[in-house]
Amino acid sequence: RTDRDKIVEGAPWDIWNFNQTGNMEVRGFLNVNGVLTIWQTRAFEVALVITTGTVTVGPGGAIRSNLPLNIYNFNGSLVANGGAIDVNAIVTFGTASVSLTNGTTVSHGSFILQGSSFTLGTGVTVTGTRLYARGGTSVILDGATVSLAVVDVITTGDITVKGSTLTSATDITLRSTAADKTLTTMDSAIT
Fold it and tell me: Which residues fall within 8 angstroms of residue 13, CB to CB, at 6 or more apart?
């Protein structure tokens, strides 16, 4: 921790355009309605960490950094209803959930998922590096356009690709390994 770190807890904190120069930990509710810029002097110097709280990115909101930055989600929620997320990676653990919908754009980066709920919904556009899921992660692509270098999903959770386009520069692995879970594809293009 540094004296520049910010902890968000308690009542919802609404931000429009905000500059952060240290780590940001969310234990409460953070509503991003403008651009949240996390400034660094070197790649991965700091992170946005969601421990038990919720980060909501609104239609005019964005999360970005001047250098590669990761969002770590431990048992919290990352919700985007439009807007943009421009980070190196979103990494989830435990019971974390990620729900990106309503035209959210992710211009680059990876999703590294460990036992969480992950949804890319209607109008979402992702151009990135990797979708990697293990553990009990449930993965839902519902109306999204996703183009990644690598798709490697082997999980005990459900996998649904519906009304979406999923493309990869390499092989696509979508495997649900639990007997009571399903892999569902409908009205989608997977290449």
Answer: 28, 29, 30, 31
